[in-house]
Fold each of these.
Amino acid sequence: MPRQRRLRKVVAPPNFKGYKPYGARTRSIDDEVELLYEEYEAIKLADYDLMNHAEAATLMGVSRATFARIYESARRKIANAFVEAKEIKVVYGNAELDKDWFLCNHCMARFTIPVKMPKDLCPLCGSQKVESINK
Ligand SMILES: [Zn+2]
């Protein structure tokens, strides 16, 4: 029986859908690296928020060993994309977001929606081009 994959807590989704290199002499457009939400979160907690691995693992609801594996995978993917001038695309993975998050495809704002507000309008620009970024 396949083992149930445990969800990793991610406090907020990344603020972008991906990264593109520019000025690369050779680059194939279908050559891209998929970075999982939880890998983004691991990099953010360890290298941006400067947490130690034990704190970051606790926050994401995983063991230290699992955190170390996610973090290592994230670093390798980013290094690969960086050196080989590949695009990075951020994909959902096994993340569990702590709230319902939405993305406005018009102004690119990410937001959570308070219960009283309509769920299909961007609170910033009023656009209806809103998509849920929770699975
Ligand atoms: Zn908007």
Amino acid sequence: MPGAPAAGTELCRVDDIAEGTAKVFSFGDGKELFEMFVLRRPEGLFAYVNDCPHARSPLDWRPGEFLTLDKTLLLCTMHGARFTIEDGICVLGPCLGDSLTKVPVEVNDGVITVAG
Ligand code: FES
């Protein structure tokens, strides 16, 4: 994808994202703007492009706010689509069955890094 960070790009330390919250990362600008987020949960890290498959809008209404009130699903606040946290599949809303785009990440010495 245009503007996407190369494998090996360091994002932040795991400890920089409090458990249960997410952090947004932006690369490039203009038509090459690439925005992604990493959600930290007890079961691991989940990283997706911040781009809803319904209308290509960012999901978060405030930076880093990606979860439903009960914190069981990812939410696109533009039109209310809901996605599973584990695989980013839309389970409710106008893009039912579509998916968010995963960003592969790994942790090296406590640093979240874009994987190859
Ligand atoms: S842009 Fe996400 S539900 Fe419409």
